[in-house]
Every structure is written in structure tokens, then in C-alpha cells.
Design goal:
The structure holds 2 protein chains of 2 kinds. By secondary structure, chain A is α+β, with helices and mostly antiparallel strands. Helix content of chain A is 30%, strand content 10%. In chain B, a hairpin with a 4-residue loop joins strand 1 and strand 2. Classes of the chains: A alpha+beta, B alpha/beta.
């Protein structure tokens, strides 16, 4: 189980979750990524990020609202191949 | 209605993510289940505030397992950090931490957390802890003592067994100063391992009201800090509310939110 950052994060770039995470498992490439990503291999399920997020964008993976279910894949994929994950973010939340 | 996308295959992950970056330089086993670890980060001790925590981690079966621990030391401690760790049987990290000897390598993260002192707060500082929840308060007391005019400090530490009253000698020595009161309490006084204990006994709910009255604490001139299990914090808040403390003057750090965190 891990936490996942979903659509409300996209294009907001708030970093409260990054500061809150005790194991430094949230990151993004500044100027390139439209959202932050949680590494599911490192997440310890503490929920500090979800509490800190001002956009209510972070959910336990088993509690993701259905329309945002693919963000679990997005977060995991970004830590393997960011170029595979980014187009999916654009599919899920088209740029304005 | 939004349709879920077809299942996607995850790209392969090849690179090790984080490297071990610290050495265990000291270990004092207080009991069979609690240990004081001294850890030396390769890059030195970063600047941090007393009350903050660091993730300690080890590779376990190909996976980096990390858990956060509050530092008992301050930035002023040269080169090393101190952590109180409790062994959790069946836990994901602590059984492996327990096998480490001095010289072992481990992972340490960056300082995190917002639990901390308010600069220039002159109110009486009431610290309430059980078990390893004492750790951040040891660091906070050290910092408060550095002030030109330290506030009055009352430190309660509850433990099941005398052997787990970590830092007892040091805290008793500090309590020789008029402005510091250290109140260790044992919750299982009838346990043979606690033979000879003549200090306070009982659980927090019984010890705290007595201390409050005996030391004549004033709810309008006190700030309370609690650290430990969610249950202990809930009990502590209830007692403090009975003493008419305002919620805004009570700060707490829970060691794991109930039901959400992986086992230590």
C-alpha cells in the first residue's frame, strides 16, 4: 500500500507534501512536471503528506476516487521512466 | 462517467534508489525491547530543530525499509544523532535494526516535522511522554537550558519498567536545577523487574493530575507537549482539558496514526 497524488495536484506545484514526508519519497522535476509523485517503493503509509496537502490531492491507493485510479500507475511509473508517466498525466488532466 | 483506462504495464525499475549514508557508532540496550542508538551521518549532522525526526532505514530483501525516529540529541552534538528505538516483534524494520552491531551501515534521511518549541515562549513547559516518546523532549530540554532565562520545565516520562527510563541519570542531574522537575513514573510497580522503585507509579491519567496539583501548575501560564502513542496522547489531552488548559496550548506528536502506518 502507498499514498498516491491525484488530479488536484496537477499545475498547483504546492510542496507541502515534500516537506512533510519523513522518508523523502515525493519529488518532481521542476519546470517539467505538472504534479508531484510518490514513490510507492519507499512510501511508509504514514499519511503525513495527505494531511499536509492544501489541495486534498493525496489518497491511499486503495481509497483513490475511481476517476483518478490511474494516478497510482502514474506515480509508480514516474520513478521508472518519467517520460512514460508524463503523457498520461496530460491525458488525465489536459493542459488548459 | 469517466472510464478507467486499460491496465498499463509498469516500466522496469533498475537503479537502487537511495544509498546507505550513515554508520551506527553506538548502541546501548536499555532492555530487551528498547535501545539507544547513536548514528553518525557521513555528511555530518544537519541543522535541525529539537522535536524533528529522521528516517532510519535498511535494505531488507531488496527493499529499502525506513521508519521515522525523533532525535534525542540536538544539532550541537558533534557528528552524531541519538535515537530511542523500541523493538516491534514482527515489524518491518526494528527486528533488522536489532541485529546491527556498532560499525553497521544504515540509511538516514533529512530532518522532518513541525513539532517543536516556540521561540521566546516563557510559559512553564510541561513535557509528557511514554516510552520512546521521551526522545524529542530530551533535545528540547537541552535547547531550553541554553536560553539566557530558561522557562520552568516539568518533564513526565512514563515507562513499564525502570530499565526503560532512558536518560534517567542525565535528567535527574538536570533536575538539580531549580527550574527543572523530572518525574519518572512506572506503570507496572508490581513487576519483579521494578523491585526497589520508590518513585511515582501508575498510568499517565493518574500521575498527571497529581503532578499538576503538587507543582501548582497554572493552565494560563503553561504550554504542554505530548509525545507517544495515539492512546496516550488522547488520555493526556483529556486530563489537560480537565485542568482547563486551552487546546491551543497543547501540542502533540503521535508515534504512528492509528491504523494507517506500516508496522515498525
Amino acid at each position: 500500500m502507498a499514498f498516491v497524488i491525484a488530479a488536484p495536484c496537477v499545475d498547483h506545484n504546492d510542496q507541502s507534501c515534500v516537506a512533510a514526508c519523513p522518508v523523502d519519497c515525493i519529488t518532481a522535476e521542476p519546470g517539467v512536471d505538472r504534479k508531484f509523485y510518490i514513490d510507492p517503493d519507499l512510501c511508509i503509509d504514514c499519511g503525513a503528506c495527505a494531511i499536509a496537502c492544501p489541495n486534498a490531492a493525496i489518497f491511499r491507493s486503495d481509497q483513490l476516487p475511481a476517476p483518478w485510479a490511474d494516478f497510482a500507475w502514474v506515480d509508480a511509473a514516474w520513478y521508472r521512466d518519467p517520460s512514460a508517466a508524463r503523457p498520461v498525466v496530460d491525458e488525465l488532466v489536459p493542459a488548459a | 462517467m469517466v472510464q478507467a483506462m486499460p491496465a498499463r504495464l509498469l516500466p522496469a525499475r533498475s537503479t537502487p534508489i537511495l544509498k546507505l549514508n550513515a554508520t551506527l557508532v553506538g548502541r546501548t540496550d536499555l532492555s530487551g525491547a528498547m535501545s539507544l542508538l547513536r548514528v553518525r551521518p557521513d555528511d555530518g549532522v544537519p541543522s535541525f530543530r529539537p522535536g524533528q525526526y529522521f528516517a532510519l532505514g535498511l535494505w531488507v530483501e531488496g527493499r529499502l525499509v525506513q521508519r521515522p525516529y525523533s532525535a534525542a540529541s540536538t544539532s550541537a552534538t558533534a557528528g552524531e544523532l541519538e535515537f530511542l528505538v523500541r523493538l516491534v516483534p514482527g515489524g518491518e524494520l526494528t527486528p533488522h535494526l536489532w541485529t546491527l552491531s556498532v560499525g553497521a551501515r544504515l540509511r538516514i534521511g533529512s530532518p522532518k516535522g513541525l513539532f517543536g518549541l516556540t521561540p521566546d515562549d516563557e510559559r512553564t513547559h510541561l513535557f509528557i511522554s511514554t516510552g520512546t516518546g521521551l526522545a524529542p523532549f530530551v533535545a528540547m530540554v537541552d535547547q531550553l537550558r541554553q536560553r539566557r532565562n530558561p522557562p520552568r520545565i516539568v518533564l513526565l516520562h512514563g515507562a513499564s519498567h525502570v530499565a526503560e527510563l532512558a536518560f534517567r541519570d542525565r535528567l535527574e542531574a538536570q533536575a538539580g536545577h531549580a527550574s527543572i522537575r523530572y518525574v519518572p513514573a512506572i506503570s507496572r510497580p508490581d513487576d519483579p523487574r521494578n523491585a526497589g522503585w520508590h518513585g511515582a507509579t501508575g498510568r499517565l491519567e493518574t500521575v498527571l493530575p497529581d503532578v499538576w496539583e503538587r507543582l501548582r501548575l497554572d493552565s494560563s501560564a503553561t504550554v504542554a507537549y505530548l509525545c507517544g502513542s495515539p492512546g496516550m496522547i488522547e488520555s493526556g489531552r483529556r486530563v489537560l482539558a480537565d485542568e482547563r488548559m486551552a487546546p491551543g496550548s497543547i501540542r502533540s506528536e503521535e508515534y504512528w496514526s492509528a491504523g494507517t502506518a506500516a508496522r515498525a
